[in-house]
Design brief:
With 241 residues, this protein is mainly beta. It contains two helices and eleven strands; from the N terminus they run H-E-E-E-E-H-E-E-E-E-E-E-E. Strand 6 and strand 7 form a beta hairpin. The radius of gyration is 19 Å and the shape is globular.
């Protein structure tokens, strides 16, 4: 039960509340069957001011803890291999900054309950969030979603733990097709970075875009990192980590 308190079924109030949309999107995403292991191609582009670097890797990801092995080639032709946290597939409770300590400890940024009282007099008060104040902006076109519901989320507590800022939700399936979140990166000192996460119909992430601005040696410095995930394949046998 993920915050649905009216006979276990989403209430069909009209218009639907932003909190109902939020929890319905969690329900829709968590209903997707996640394979134990995934193989995919990750094309990573790093833009550090005037320097640009691109690495293409074959990635083997274990979805239980999202530990992944990256096997690729550096721009100079030398082979590279790395083991780190990755999220090709993003169930909603994993929308936290990639590489954050909280994420690596498996802490979820989505609540699995609500602050709603046990006796609810009206449908309008069924849905609430302990972590976000949520507003429905309207509908906006987003990739395969067409005119998607657009929610804005303002954290009530720790803005890095509860780091979602926007969600775009398909109006038919209620799956999440795009999200914006924040995380910390280091540019001289830690600064906030904005992540744009785009998902496919099947729930796999198609791309991340991370941007941040800080100061390096007293001068403005801009970081841009793009990851494109393609050709995801479910594996029945565990890869070697």
């Amino acid at each position: 039960m993920i915050g649905l308190i009216f006979s276990g079924v989403l209430a069909t109030a009209s218009p639907i509340s932003p909190y109902a949309l939020y929890f319905r999107s969690l329900q829709a995403m968590r209903a997707i069957v996640v394979p134990k292991y995934i193989r995919y191609v990750d094309s990573e582009t790093l833009q550090h001011k005037w320097k640009r670097k691109r690495i293409v890797s074959i990635v083997y990801e274990r979805t239980l803890d999202h530990i992944a092995r990256y096997i690729g080639t550096n721009p100079n032709g030398t082979p590279t291999t790395d083991i780190r946290v990755a999220h090709a597939f993003l169930p909603p409770d994993l929308f936290i900054g990639r590489g954050n300590a909280a994420q690596q400890k498996g802490q979820a940024s989505f609540e699995i309950g609500t602050d709603a009282p046990p006796h609810i007099p009206t449908i309008d008060t069924i849905y609430t969030s302990r972590r976000y104040t949520i507003a429905l902006v309207g509908t906006e076109p987003r990739s395969w979603c067409g005119d998607a519901f657009h929610l804005t989320l303002t954290p009530k507590g720790d803005p890095l733990r509860d780091n979602l800022r926007d969600l775009w939700i398909d109006r038919t399936t209620f799956r999440i097709c795009e999200a914006k979140a924040v995380r910390k990166v280091r540019i001289g000192s830690p600064v906030d970075a904005l992540m744009t996460i785009r998902l496919r119909r099947d729930g796999y992430v198609s791309s991340y875009l991370t941007t941040a601005t800080g100061r390096m040696f007293g001068f403005p410095y801009t970081l841009s990192e793009t990851d494109h995930m393609t050709r995801p394949t479910a594996l029945s046998v565990s890869p070697t980590f």
